[in-house]
């Protein structure tokens, strides 16, 4: 009888583990991404850009928190002009699966806003309500277009990029493309960064419990992932050898998808390439804090780290 009881408990746990992400996906999918105010983002506007013919990408622009009262009822023209107010601007590139309404992505935008910065959070083509088929070339094209769109409106405001998880590879690859154009981001933040997108050949990402976390709490990355079965490279390890942009690496020791060893290797590569302790920083978040892969936005010290 006790064996049957334990079997039922185990089955219930498996069903719950699979159901919660599914329900969260349905909830996020039901959000009207064109109306960020519906989920409490009262100084954020939605816009759509067209990086290529037939491709439309959705972007949320959150202004600095001290301008929230001024932002009430304002249109896109006001938000565009606000980019030139001298405040730093961050283009946030999210990870694999879901859309710009995910809680941890909103969390980062809110932290940047509270510090006094602009945050532009984009859904790549094929993600959220953005149209088009996601490919490696397509992702970087979307980000390059957004960068140039921002630069055309931002005056002398510094423009940085923040890449989380898969977005770290998109950020570093885009930075190299910009370098080829004779331009560069003013700063780069990589959070929970992969060495590259070739997971099967990246020995530093081997972890005894990775299969569990991917198949249960993060099952949406398999079931609802526009990039599933895509041939991606996004070689952050190779890209950082070419870049000389100030870089900060944020990583939790208990990251269950990308082990901390990945951050250490990224730091080693970038530090060697830039030959500087000042231009390359690694910020470690203690594993006892329980931030895992998506929770760094909760850290009370993060605003000062970003400053």
TrEMBL record:
GO biological process: monoacylglycerol catabolic process; phosphatidylserine catabolic process
GO cellular component, one term: endoplasmic reticulum membrane
Keywords, comma-separated and alphabetical: Membrane, Transmembrane, Transmembrane helix
Keyword Transmembrane helix found: yes
Listed GO MF terms: monoacylglycerol lipase activity; phosphatidylcholine lysophospholipase activity
AB hydrolase-1 domain span: 88-219
UniProt name for this protein: Monoacylglycerol lipase ABHD12-like
Organism: Cyprinus carpio
């Amino acid at each position: 009888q006790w064996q049957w009881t334990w079997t039922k408990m185990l089955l219930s746990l498996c069903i719950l583990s699979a159901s919660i992400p599914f329900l969260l996906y349905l909830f996020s999918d039901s959000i009207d991404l064109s109306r960020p105010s519906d989920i409490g983002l009262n100084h954020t506007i939605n816009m759509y850009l067209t990086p290529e013919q037939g491709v439309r990408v959705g972007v949320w622009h959150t202004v600095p928190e001290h301008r929230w009262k001024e932002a009430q009822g304002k249109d896109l023209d006001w938000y565009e002009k606000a980019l030139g107010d001298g405040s730093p601007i961050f283009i946030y590139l999210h990870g694999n699966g879901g859309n710009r309404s995910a809680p941890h992505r909103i969390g980062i935008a809110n932290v940047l806003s509270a510090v006094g910065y602009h945050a532009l959070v984009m859904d790549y083509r094929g993600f959220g309500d953005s149209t088009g088929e996601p490919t490696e070339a397509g992702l970087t094209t979307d980000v390059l277009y957004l960068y140039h769109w921002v630069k055309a409106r931002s005056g002398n405001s510094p423009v940085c990029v923040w890449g989380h998880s898969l977005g770290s590879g998109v950020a570093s690859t885009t930075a190299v493309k910009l370098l080829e154009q004779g331009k560069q981001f003013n700063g780069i933040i990589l959070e929970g960064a992969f060495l590259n997108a070739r997971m099967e050949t990246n020995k530093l990402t081997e972890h005894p419990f990775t299969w569990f976390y991917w198949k249960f709490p993060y099952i949406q990355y398999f079931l609802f992932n526009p990039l599933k079965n895509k041939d991606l490279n996004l070689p952050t390890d190779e890209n950082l050898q070419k870049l000389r942009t100030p870089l900060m690496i944020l990583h939790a020791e208990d990251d269950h998808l990308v082990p901390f060893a990945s951050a250490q290797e990224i730091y080693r590569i970038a530090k060697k390439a830039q030959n500087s302790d000042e231009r390359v920083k690694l910020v470690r978040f203690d594993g006892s804090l329980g931030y895992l892969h998506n929770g760094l936005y909760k850290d009370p010290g993060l605003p000062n780290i970003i400053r």
